Amino acid sequence: MAQPLRFPVRRFSWLAVLLALLVCAGAALSGLVSRSDYAPLAAAAAAAALGLAVLFVRRPVWGVYFALVVIFLPLGLLPLTWHSLLNRAVTVGAVGAWLANSAFTRRKLSLPPPALWMLAFIIWSALSLAWTVDMPESQENLQVYILRCALFLLTLVNLVKEPGSLRGLMRVLALNGWILMVAFAGTVLTQGYTFGDRLKILSMNENEAAVNALVFMLGILWLADQQPGQAAWRRALAGVPYLALCMALIAMSGSRGALISLAVTLAVLFLFRNTRHWAWLGGGLALAGALALPQVLTTLVTRFLQPEGGLLLNGREVLWPAAWRVILDHFWTGVGIGAGPAAIETQVRGMVGVLLGYTSPAHNPVLAIWADTGLIGLLLFLSVPASVLWIFLRAWRAGKTGSGVPLAAAVAAGYAFSWIKGGGVESELTYFLLLGLLLVIAQVDDALDGGEGSQP
Q1: How far is CA 454 from CA 215, 233, 310, in A?
Q2: Among 247, 275, 272, 274, which residue's Cα sits nearest to residue 261?
Q3: What CA–CA distances, in Å, run from 424 to 79, 149, 293, 360, 405?
Q4: What is the pLDDT of residue 402?
Q5: Cα–Cα distance between 81 and 70 in angstroms, integer?
Q6: Listed residue (97, 153, 160, 91) closest to 122, CA to CA
Q7: Which of 161, 210, 317, 385 could form a disulfide with 253 if both were Cys (CB 3.0 to 4.6 A apart)?
Q8: How many CB atoms lie within 10 A of CB 15?
């Protein structure tokens, strides 16, 4: 058997330090060669990037953690252009660090079935560029799917294979959750809140903020359940602050989908003995909040009883038939990856004479993918979550123990109720994050509390 190539850590580290010092010296002298006010900042950023590159090649899982923290920062916390460029940079960096480390250590790369299905979908989507009706949008969407697959279905799954790295991943989720909650609290404290309005956190979509809070809750509850030697009630109390803030955020955002997702999540948690305390706690907090401050539910009640524009589904009554018309016209091949919204917009104009303010996405991932890539693309796309679900359930049935498995199942089940009616959710970061999480959890043995089991 070939011996693994030793990674020259010391030599590589000293070289990186030397290069970083040279870059910093360049930053100090940058005024001599450039009059730009941003020259020192650019040089310092290059030095930081170089240092991070060295660190992440040595510890590629840290590169994934860093990428997840960055890409899930609340939208609007940074200038939007910077945020977009930074998201792509850290994603490419994390994937590149993993590949470089694998090359140095001659580590085998695994291709899980969901990644293979996703690669097949990407290849078919690339072929659809030949007949797309919106080339710029198609190229943008294809890039998004490539990056999502590379980070969540390949890099994450290859690097998080043991309990320690899984725990680190859950800490990252918890950190992202608390960053979102700080942004939520800061928005309320600085801008105030009027009962009946939908609270907007920075530049985030109201529904997106509420659903993200629900997904990040997995990390909070997971870590709380891993406190050794503590009584169950003390572990439960560790999740109280986040649960309370999460429910307040969902109520103030007015997201009906997130409310339904939260109810489904709590219902699934109630089915299992070692997660039932979260269901009781969540239900108790919701009841206490409704009794203590019923005005906070005004937005949700209004949106359920008096839909905007008199439409219960917020315009989906028009978008879904329009998407179906596009599908019937391009049943097998679609109109091209990412080009569905433009084709749907044309159909909406033909149906109602004017857009009436409706957005172009189909607000249903099945219809959106079908309109984009046809039935062939849809079957390939749906094979990804189907194979993830199969792997996860098979691992659960085989005895992957601990409360983490039903916790993940509950959050995924709740998320599905928001996902099926969302706009653009077929390529959402949280969607691919959950796919990666389920795969990771399925492959990590005894990641939690010593095998208590997850019996109903």
Answers
A1: 20, 18, 44
A2: 247
A3: 22, 16, 34, 10, 28
A4: 56
A5: 14
A6: 153
A7: 210
A8: 12
Positive/negative CA dihedral, 345, 351, 357, 362: negative
Q: Phi, psi at residue 347, to the nearest 5°?
A: -65, -40
Record the tokens describing residue 47, joined without a space: 């030095």
How many Å separate Cα 307 from the centre of its chain?
Answer: 28
Q: How far apart are the first and last CA of the chain?
A: 46
| pLDDT tens by residue, 31-61 | 555 555 555 666 566 666 666 777 788 889 9
How would you write 150-186 as a 3-class SS string?
HHHHHHHHHHCCCHHHHHHHHHHHHHHHHHHHHHHHH
pTM confidence score = 0.87
Question: Please, what is the angle between helix 60-71 and helix 80-105, to 10°?
Answer: 170
Q: How confident is residue 421, by pLDDT bands cut at 50, 70 and 90?
A: confident
Judge whether 261 and 214 are in contact, CB under 8 Å: yes
- Residue with more model confidence, 201 or 274: 201
User: In the structure encoding, which two tokens stand for residue 29, read together?
Assistant: 């002298």
C-alpha span between 397 and 378 (Å, rounded): 28
Q: Is residue 335 within 8 Å of residue 344, measured between CB atoms? A: no
Task: Fill in the DSSP letter of residue 207.
Answer: H
Half-sphere exposure of residue 160: CA atoms within 13 angstroms, side-chain side = 26
Chain mean pLDDT for the chain = 83
pLDDT for the residue 51: 66
On the question of pLDDT at 152 being above 90, the answer is yes
